[in-house]
Amino acid sequence: LKFWFQPFRRIRFCNRLATMLQMFGRGKKTDQPEWDQNFEPLIKLLLGKKGIKTKSASEIGKKKVDYFRGKDLKKFLLESGPLLKKKCQPALNAALPPNGDEPENDQDVDRIGDELIQRNFCYKAMYKPINPTKSDSGADKKPVKKSWPDRLARTPNQKFDCEGFYVITYEGDAAMQHLFLALIIAGVLLACMFPVWPMWAKVGIWYLSVIFLSLYFGILILRMIIFTLFWIVGFDFWIFPNLNDEYCGFLDSFKPFYSWEKRADDAMMLLVRFGSLAITAVAVQQIAETTSMADVQDFVTSSYIDVIDWGVEKLTALPSSEKQMLPDLEELQKEDNETSEEGEILNVDDKKVSGEDDDDVADVSDIADEAKDKKEL
Description:
The protein has 11 helices and 7 strands. It starts with 6 loop residues before the first helix and ends with a helix.
């Protein structure tokens, strides 16, 4: 809410939003389509669910880009002839005249790849490491080949090669970009207005966050335990090996389900593995003697409930929330006992005060009687 009551920040945010809308709304004013209509179905098929595999990389001096490998394109074109004839016949007619037959050899694949490059659907790139290695004599070594490099740079030679990498410049339909932009803006505005959300929405977000983090860290702990057990016996076994790979998309992070590889360790590493096995066995035995599975389950359950209750209490204790923090039963009983003790003290003091007043009255009457007796005498 403070953001909306600060005019300078509000105006700056609106200006940036207008600039973004202009950038995404900018397009060609002519009636000519931006992409070649003969080859657009082909690029859509290549980048679809049944198409070739793509990954993300950082291009030098530019933003993050998606790319594919030439050998994957070659394999797809040679194995998907009937599908290409069915959905991409205009592209085959333009790339493989005069009959537009199915691609059958490397020359046909090279022609189709060259047509995609010439029509700006993609361009050829090469691996560019951050710090190129040098030999002892000072001459540059040949860069190490990577199956999927993380840094690319455009090459001067834009001739298609099955061993090259190709950055995708095809952006697809602009309507989807506008939709994604609208969703991003709506999400940012909703996040900024979190303090005024209803309480049920805040608590729901907290529950979803706890569930997501529990699943994520649970998977990490499980895969680490399983990896350690297999590592001790000489294998590298990972569940979801690409889970933390920053270059994989959301769905690619869960592919493949597992990876299995036998280790080729020397005698020293074998000794380390056997020592780790002995330490693990002793630790498991000691834990089993002092703690049962029921204790562990109770500890995990109570900790989970405490975390959830802590978050709910923090949300409900906010000044703008509908429900303020209420005292518990123990605090109410303590206040009642203190009130009753204060009342008893006041009663005792009243009695003492009243007793002192009676004594004073008795003393005054005695003095009066003595004075009367002296007068009579």
